[in-house]
Amino acid sequence: MFLLLILFSIFSGCSSQKWRSRGDSLRGADAAPIANPLVIPAASQEDAWERSIDVLHAFHFEIERENRQARTIETRYRVGSGLLEPWHRESVGWENRLESTLQSIRRKVVVTVTPVKEGKHPQYAIQVVALKEQEDIDALTANSPGGATFQETSPLKRDLTPVLGQSRPSGWIPQGRDLELERAILVQLRQD
Length: 192
Fold this sequence. Notes:
The chain is α+β, with helices and mostly antiparallel strands. The protein has helices at about 1-10, 15-20, 45-60, 95-100, 180-190, and strands spanning about 40, 65, 70-75, 80, 105-115, 125-135, 170-175.
């Protein structure tokens, strides 16, 4: 009953508006086109760099690598949040949240900060590339309770690990770029 009450409050009209975070809506007036790379004014490259990192942290991404010579910031993969996790922002829009609820999805963001104009009023172009992958489980796992019990018809085996997991780790299938997440990050960068 409690779960039905929560689902009803999430999907009902006005209450769903307060669950939506900044940059989460991509329809209506918010659907204005935004350039990627986005040119922003900043006092220095360090300011543009830190601003990009702050926005990635706002979306709960952890930084994996920073390469100032190549001018790139790369995040770790983050598993997509589902419908019951509205406080996480990396799954942008209801379609992506539903997909992340029903299937294991992960995302990674690569940001490039490039100087465009130097001098009295410096500007920097920030390009955001969000990569999306779907989990590919190789086969059904062999974790049945029957494999861990003793058989009366066969001689006793001294194998101490009769319960097996998957034969190899799960793979990930690239799904291309997540344009909605890219746009939400760029909108946040423009607002900050």
